[in-house]
Amino acid sequence: xxxxxxxxxxxxxxxxxxxxxxxxxxxxxxxxxxxxxxxxxxxxxxxxxxxxxxxxxxxxxxxxxxx
Length: 67
Known about the structure:
The protein is mostly helical. The chain has three helices and no strands.
């Protein structure tokens, strides 16, 4: 039986999984971890935008453009 973490890792590698895993966005993760005081040590004191930069990832921003 595959674990949730295992499914996420397989999807990230482009491999097939038995079902699509739910992966919350960084905003949900950051809010939950910072409110609980359980951010990883390396990210304590960083803003939500600083964490992806520190991990070498691009920022993902939702765009709400009015036409």
